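Researcher: Predict the fold of Zinc finger FYVE-type containing 21.
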Amino acid sequence: MCPRCMQCDTKFDFITRKHHCRRCGKCFCDKCCSKKVPLPRMCFVDPVRQCAECALVSQKETEFYDKQLKVLMNGATFFVTLGTSDKSELMVCRLSNNQRYLVLDGDSHYEIEIVQISTVQILTEGFTPGEKDIHTYTSLLESQPVTEGGNTRAVGMILQYKVPGSDEVMQMKFTAGEDFSCNKKLSAAWLAAMHKATKLLYESRDQ
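Model: C-alpha cells for Zinc finger FYVE-type containing 21 follow.
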C-alpha cells in the first residue's frame, strides 16, 4: 500500500524494492533503510534493518543497556529531601529489577513508577546555584526541549513525579554525600546514568 519511499520519495518498482524499518514500521528504499542495528527492546536477537533515525536511537539504547543500566540497578546513596521539607534522609536509590520503578530505601521506603516521572533536573558542581549553576533539564512527559549541561560532575538531582490517582505533583531532591560512606564518585556515576536514561526516554517517547 506504500508506493514510495517515506524518506526520499523514490518510487518502488521491480528494481527498487521496499523495506520496512523494524522499529518504526515505515517503508523505505534500500538506501534509506540500510543500517542493521540490534533492537533488544523489541526482542530481536540479531541486528535488524532500521531507518537512519531509528538506528541512531537504537545504537544509544544498546550502549545504555551495556553500560549504564547495571549502574542504575546497583544503586547509589543520596541525601533525599521530600517536597519543601528542610530535613533529609540518607537513602539508597536504585532501579528495580523489572526497570519500572525507582526504589528508595532508608528509614523510609518509596517506590516511584518511572511512567509517573514528569521532570528530571540534574545538578552539577560549578557556579553558585541560582546564578550560573550548570544543570541539565529533561522533561519526560511534556514536549520540552532537552538542554545539555556542561562537563562538570553531577552532584544531585531534582525529581518531580505525579501521584497515581491524582493530579498532585511531588518533588524530591537527591544530594550526593560528602563523606566516604556515601561514595560520591559512585553517586556521580549513578546520576550520569540517570541522565542518559532520561534522555533516551525523551528521545524515544514517540517511537
